[in-house]
Amino acid sequence: MQATDGVVKNSNARSLISVIVPVYNVEKYLSRCIESILCQTHRELEVILVNDGSADKSGETCDAYAKKDSRVRVFHQENAGVSTARNAGINIATGDWIAFVDADDWLEPSMYEKLLQAGIENGTLLACCNYVRHYSEEKQVFKLYSETPKVLTGKQALIRCLTPADNPFFGRIVQFIYNHTLFKDAIDNARIRFDTSIHFCEDILLLTQILIKADRVAYIPDLLYIYYQREGSAINSVSEKRLTALCALKQLKEHVEPISHRLLLYAQVMYATNIKFIVICYCNSKQYTQATMFRCELRRFVKICIFTNVNSFKLKIEYLATLLLPKSIIGFLSRVNGRRKGTTITTAT
User: pLDDT confidence of 213, banded at 50, 70, 90?
Assistant: First the structure.
């Protein structure tokens, strides 16, 4: 792990936070998101709304907020994807700190005040909080390990980010605020940016790159970010863009392999988990040829996913079922599970 030089010296009240929000066809949720940012108890904000070629009224909503509040800046671009939108926000951000928010999520009012205080008091370049997950009307609260200290090393934070799916927390870029120096050229003469060819898992890839370079990370256990997974969202479908997640996770494996065997193991499990999801989606849509191809790829990770202690017993059973059950049965079970959750798993074009 490489240490990052510098200790944050800005006072809490005067530190400007640039909040970057990629916006694409979210008119139903956008006002809730923007209001939760503008109502933050920390008032020194630069809210950068990047309208990524929305076909609905999202762009008009962005412009309306820019007229009402001088802290709001709007950048309109042709549709190019969330990574390009976030990069555009980073490139024009002027804040001491940078944060990311997804346009259908929202924040607790004290989120940035508490994160900023944690980062400054501990002299770290990153600060992280916990989050609540809303799945339609269902609410799930994820709590971090009780032994998580107030300050972690970059490697400790990375281990928690990549811990297998039993613990789906501490791995989303929206949980953090980042000192702006992390995105500048000064670090190893290279800028950290989102890979614009990747449309899924681009956030964990970028977060991994940052944590590899980070010296320390401040952590507070407060549930301050509300992550909303809406029905029919892209996370529940397979498309060419969705398959870029595998490219991201292959890169992730390359990044962590020199650091530790444990991190590599976790990265391999994350890769296999995504393949399992793809198999289920293809079975659900009765695209059995594609399901067979990815099931062959999944077999390469049997030893890691089933015969090690990385996954829970429940997840091991899920892997075995995905590998051994007839594909028609896998599709039927996914549809039943989707109806119970009030959503569907589909294969997009």
Answer: confident
